[in-house]
Amino acid sequence: MSIRVRFPELDLLRFFAACAVMLFHYTFRGPADNCWPASFPLFGQISRYGYLGVHVFFILSGFVILLTAYQKNAIGFTVARIVRLYPAYWICVTLTALAILVAGNQRHLSLRQYFLNLTMVHGYFGIKDVSGVYWTLAVELKFYFLIFLVMLLRMVHKLGYLLGAWLGASILLSLREPHGIANFFLFPEWSSYFIAGAMLFLIHREGPTTYKLAVVAGCYALSIGYAVGLLPLGGGNIELGTSPPILVSVLTVFYLIFLGIALRKRSASANPFYTVGLITYPLYLLHQDLGYILIRYAPPGVNRYVLLCAVMVTMIALSWLLTVGPERWFASRLKRLLGRIEERPFPGKSLFGAAAFPRSPGAGAVPSSPVSPSAPTLPPPPAELPLEKQPAS
Known about the structure:
Elements: H1 8-32, H2 44-47, H3 53-69, H4 74-102, H5 111-117, H6 135-152, H7 159-173, H8 181-186, H9 188-206, H10 210-227, H11 244-263, H12 274-296, H13 304-343
């Protein structure tokens, strides 16, 4: 009998990260950009670091995406990503665009911009985001593309070495001005978080080794370098008004938390935070512009903290309604459609390969002890987690 592996703390972390980004926008970035007249001089000193929630999303992506990659082939991986990302994204882009138009926002939003945003790849062609938070999706897509290539080339069994090579290339790219095709596809400013998350998953799956821990340590150093403005060499910058010692401390806590999660032994258990994790993606996508509009049109005289809490609760409730309603309906039908396409034979389909590691009758089971990298066989993959996305302007 298989044992389902649960990581409830990942869903909770994902939700807290989304709330941190919300607070960053509502109490620091929003007032700074004159999106509402209230100010939070004391609380803003804390919430200004809320943008670091995006860094948590990226580490999470590196960790959980491998759960999919270890159980599917390249086509199955692509279908799973499309089904997870696009239904909620299309709904949130549409709601945000309608809200901007109805509210008479000063921003100009064209029909062309709206439709191109629906592709999620618009940013690569210089098309402005409907909402500022979408920039992180462009980063996520690059990571998915790299994993897709690894699966297509049937090199998942060498993923640990590929992650180390990616880290090395990212360090080298960070020592020069950020431009060129290598910089585009390897995105060294953010790669350390994805590499760390993926390597931490391998630590959880196979057990820690000196090499794996060294890669995570290298990712930590690269993350710090960019966070405090030391990288890229000669062109780094630090978020306005933030303190380097605080940034280092927060990132250190992030890495230690994820390391603890990776090293913790797992057993069969329920996930009480499953729904909380699911709503995080639409919450992240919706909160910025819709929240600003609600704040702007709130009755005058409402206490700013009461208004802040009301808007955050409204965004969370709306995200839950979208998750259990239209997103679930849309995703199920899209999955059915893409599933039919996936099953149809077509020329060259065999090139996409079988699953990275063939499922055994006990797939989903977790080995009782770490497996040596030199072992002739690999353990069956753990069960797939509900996936998020990430991620603030």
